[in-house]
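thread: overnight batch results

M.L. [08:02]
morning all. the overnight job finished for the chain we discussed friday. pasting input first so we're all looking at the same thing
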Amino acid sequence: MPEIPLKSLDTRIKKRVDNARTALDRGNYEYAIEICSSILLDTPGCLEIRELLRQAQSSVFAKNGQSIWSKSKGLLTAQTLVAYGKPYIKKNPSLAMGYGERALRYDPLHKGALSLVAAGAEKLDLPETAVFCLEKICTKETKDFNLLHRYCEALISLGDTNRAVAVAERLKALKPESSIIQELVKSASVAHSINRGNWAEEEHDFRSKLKEEPSSEESEQGSRFLDLQADGAVGTVDLIDAIHRDPQNLDLYKRLVRASLKSDEYRTALSWLDKAAQLPQAASDVSLKQLRNEIMIRATELELQNLQRDPSAAQKDPKDRIQKLEHDLESLKIEESRKIVEQFPNDYAQRLNLGELLLGAGKVDEAIREFQISQRSTSLKRRSCVMLGRCFFRKRLYDLALEQFSVVEHESPLMDDFKKDVLYSAAECSEALGDVDSAIRRYKLIYSNDIGFRDVAAKIDSFYSETD
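M.L. [08:03]
and the structure it wrote out:
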């Protein structure tokens, strides 16, 4: 969806915008907000209307005053609206943006609300709108890595390469070893060079730019592969030929490695990865290490699946080999998950995933730390609390475990498998603490809804036989 200038809109809409401007001039800010908000729900790509809406929101915010009570009430309302809007980012970006704008009425600089509107704009391919929102946060939140990353990408999409390069440098200062940021800095710099005319001056064509190169025709042929998608559109033979023509092109090696991965040729992938690692520019490329880890995970998973289907294929004791592969796979997944969390520390879903992997590996204390962070997300709170309860149960801290399970028990009105599992876990904690009545009460709740759930029927029968 492209950005839409106001002059391109229907006459009736433009008249409504004029009415909003008149209302704003007369101090009728609420009416101006109502008009602009309703238009933007159907036409989210008109930045001029959004700018007018922001003026009206700022006026309402200033009019309501800055008392502690007013600030607290506004903050709570804004946070609630943002929470309502987040689930719609993927399925209805315009509606998500609408929730964000409603939140901005209570605080025009609310970080979560501006981020929500920007996220919807990014989904709808509205870079100008995304930049309009993100720049207000990024001038204030100068060390928020994820927001700065989104801001930089939006600036590149918009073509504002001067600011994109400046933001990319700030990101590089925050995480100098990040391969993602290295690529972003490169993209920003290249886009900036193109905009300045260093790569495409009107009086020179592409070949004249390469006239000083010893093999301009070969370079052009090799570069064609860079323009193709890395989704298998280029075959491995073609990529190998391209590497022979341009042996210093690290990107070609990476594409060949990924092409080999898709066909499960792990030895070939590792061989070319080793060749790529010998290039001078590979020393600072973190993505190569990530590729190696990905290859090892995929190769281990494949060998494990083959052994589980046909244990006789193992040269030695298949049980020992399977156990070793399972341990190796567990370690590789934890290592990969740690890297993702390091790159995106505010991604709570990744925190939860890392915690589950750590708990599965018996690293309970490390898992607890990740679950305590992931429960900050409202959408992941229940699952995080359950996992925290399981960690405490593993450490025999039954009272702490029961607290976590009880929180989820009261926040889960529907008696589905999730709640039954929580009730069962809470009952186990009560049993361990010697509180038989609480345990039986929870087992009865499960029994009355699902007699076949685990061994709950046997527990109820045992309890009543003892009382008789």
